[in-house]
Design a protein that fits this description.
single chain; Histidine-containing Protein, Chain: A; 7 helices
Length: 223
């Protein structure tokens, strides 16, 4: 079992191991599995990379992210310039249906809205924005409204999660209410939690996923 210092060191090393972040000044603290990240980076992509690197570390139960994005003066763009580049990026992405996503930019912060039939399209829209210069943050308000009218079967979701080699589904409880799937129970890593959620989102007819899985690495050691 890791103590706070060991977890802090592991997260620091995971962040430094990423090529995009090896020169970034990111502060890390750890307390009972809760990791806090702080500092300043020069792109939103680096902020996301630091967050993802921390999530992959065994022992991280929750993440508090306080990283600020500040650009060099030569990188500054107007909101209109950022919006135009985002629309170009969305139109160039084959995973995002044309003219289904609206964009709002305020002081470099991007808000995406609209309705799409699949969650992977929703994620693709956000990913198309992450690496653009001038973007300080992204709020993804795109709603998923499936075009399928088939009833969602709880058994189908359970079997889909169970087929994944990377997710231990022995303590995952799946429930279905209308177009909403809820996941409860315990997993041993943040990756497993997100992967179970991703698989649930692939269910035809899904509109919402409530991922209430608890991450507890030590649970597996004791169990």
């Amino acid at each position: 079992m890791k103590n706070n210092q060991e977890l802090q060191t592991d997260v620091q090393n995971a962040i430094k191991w990423e090529p995009l972040l090896n020169a970034a000044e990111i502060g890390v603290t750890a307390q009972d599995g809760v990791v806090s990240l702080s500092g300043v980076v020069d792109s939103y992509a680096k902020k996301m990379e630091a967050e993802n690197a921390a999530k992959r570390v065994i022992g991280v139960k929750a993440l508090v992210e306080k990283i600020e994005v500040k650009f060099p003066s030569s990188w500054l763009k107007t909101n209109d310039e950022i919006a135009k580049e985002i629309l170009t990026a969305l139109n160039a992405n084959w995973s995002v249906p044309k003219d289904k996503v609206t964009v709002k930019v305020e002081d470099g912060w991007v808000t995406l809205e609209g309705e799409l039939p699949w969650n992977y399209q929703r994620e693709a829209a956000k990913n198309a924005v992450n690496y653009l210069i001038g973007v300080k943050g992204v709020t993804n308000n795109i709603k998923v409204k499936s075009e399928s009218h088939d009833l969602i079967e709880q058994k189908d979701v359970e079997e889909a999660i169970g087929r994944s080699w990377s997710v231990d589904d022995s303590d995952i409880e799946v429930s279905v209410s209308g177009t909403t799937v809820t996941l409860k129970g315990m997993v041993t890593s943040w990756y497993q939690k997100e992967e179970a959620g991703r698989i649930a989102w692939n269910t035809p007819g899904i509109w919402h996923v409530k991922n209430e899985l608890v991450v507890d690495y030590y649970y597996a050691l004791v169990d």
